[in-house]
C-alpha cells in the first residue's frame, strides 16, 4: 500500500497516564476510502487513540502520520480536513439544532450561511432545525453531532461509539448515513465501537485492540473467510488430542484456547473421525459441536489467545 493511499499510520504509538498504559506500542494503518472498525472493550485504548490523532492529548512515545504529515505544524493543517464525534458534543440545551450548528460554524470560521441547513438536511434533521436540543431524542442528538462533524466538509471522520444508546431504527439510520457518506462523498471513516454485529454491516477494515495493544489488523474479506463454520471440541486431554490430530488425521488448521477447547476450521461435513479419534485413544470426549463464528466470537478468541500468550 503506497503512502498516498493511507490516511493514518502509527508506529509504536504509546500513551501513559501515570502508571496506566492506555496505548502500548500501537502499529496500525487506516487506508484511504475505508470504513475502519476499531474494535475493543471499554478501556482498550480506542478513545485515547482518536484523541491523539485529533491533538486532544499527546502521545508519550512513538509516532504517527496524518496524510503523511509527521510534525505538529502539518498535523494542525491536516486536522482541518477531519471531523469528529468524541464523547458527547457540547450543545446548548436551550438552543435549537440550527442555532447550535450556526454557533459552531461562526466559532470555527467556516464560510457559508447555508452550511447549517445543508448539513441538517444531509443527516435527516431538516424538519428538526427549530427543535431545541433538550427536546431531541438520543438518535436526533447523535445525528446532530454528526452534522457538526460534517460542518467543515471533512475528508476523514473519526467517530467514537456513534451508535451507542440508539434504538434499532436509529442504528439503521446512522448506518445508512455513514455508508452513503463513504460511498458518495468518498469520506474515510474511523469508527470506534464495541457493537460488533453492527460494525460487520459497515466496516471494510478492522483493527482489534485489547489492553492498549493491537491484537490484529485484517480486511473485511479476510475476516469473513475466517469467520466461517468451525468445530468446537472439548476433551479431557487436549494436548494429547491435538498431537493425535496432527499424526493420525494430518490436521494443522486448529487452535487450542487457554481453557483447552479445540477449534478446528472445518473442511468436511463428516465430524465422526474427530470423535472417533478421541474414543479410540481413551480420551473422554466432552463436547463436539459445529458452530458459525460471528465477529464477536472472533474477537473473543483473539483476546483469549493474547491473554494465553502473556501468561
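Sequence proposed for the structure above (311 residues):
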Amino acid at each position: 500500500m503506497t503512502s498516498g493511499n493511507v490516511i493514518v499510520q502509527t508506529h509504536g504509538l504509546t500513551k501513559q497516564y501515570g502508571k496506566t498504559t492506555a496505548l502500548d506500542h500501537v502499529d496500525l494503518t487506516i487506508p484511504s476510502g475505508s470504513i475502519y472498525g476499531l474494535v475493543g472493550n471499554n478501556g482498550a485504548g480506542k478513545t485515547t487513540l482518536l484523541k491523539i490523532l485529533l491533538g486532544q492529548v499527546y502521545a508519550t512515545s512513538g509516532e504517527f502520520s496524518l496524510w503523511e504529515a509527521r510534525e505538529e505544524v502539518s498535523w494542525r493543517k491536516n486536522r482541518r480536513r477531519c471531523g469528529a464525534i468524541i464523547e458527547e458534543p457540547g450543545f446548548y440545551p436551550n438552543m435549537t439544532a440550527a442555532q447550535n450548528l450556526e454557533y459552531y460554524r461562526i466559532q470555527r470560521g467556516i464560510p457559508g450561511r447555508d452550511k447549517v441547513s445543508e448539513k441538517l438536511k444531509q443527516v435527516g434533521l431538516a424538519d428538526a432545525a427549530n427543535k431545541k436540543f433538550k427536546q431531541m431524542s438520543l438518535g436526533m442528538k447523535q445525528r446532530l453531532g454528526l452534522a457538526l462533524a460534517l460542518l467543515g466538509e471533512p475528508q476523514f471522520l473519526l467517530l467514537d461509539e456513534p451508535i451507542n444508546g440508539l434504538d434499532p431504527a436509529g442504528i439503521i439510520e446512522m448506518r445508512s448515513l455513514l455508508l452513503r457518506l463513504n460511498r458518495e462523498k468518498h469520506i474515510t471513516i474511523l469508527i470506534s465501537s464495541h457493537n460488533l454485529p453492527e460494525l460487520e454491516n459497515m466496516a471494510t477494515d478492522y483493527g482489534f485492540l485489547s489492553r492498549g495493544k493491537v491484537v490484529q489488523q485484517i480486511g473485511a474479506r479476510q475476516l469473513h473467510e475466517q469467520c466461517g463454520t468451525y468445530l468446537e471440541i472439548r476433551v479431557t486431554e487436549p494436548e494429547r488430542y491435538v498431537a493425535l490430530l496432527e499424526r493420525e488425521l494430518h490436521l494443522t488448521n486448529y487452535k487450542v484456547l487457554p481453557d483447552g477447547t479445540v477449534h478446528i476450521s472445518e473442511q468436511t461435513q463428516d465430524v465422526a473421525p474427530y470423535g472417533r479419534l478421541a474414543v479410540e485413544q481413551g480420551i473422554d470426549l466432552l463436547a463436539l459441536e459445529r458452530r458459525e463464528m460471528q465477529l464477536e466470537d472472533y474477537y473473543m478468541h483473539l483476546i483469549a489467545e493474547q491473554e494465553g500468550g502473556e501468561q
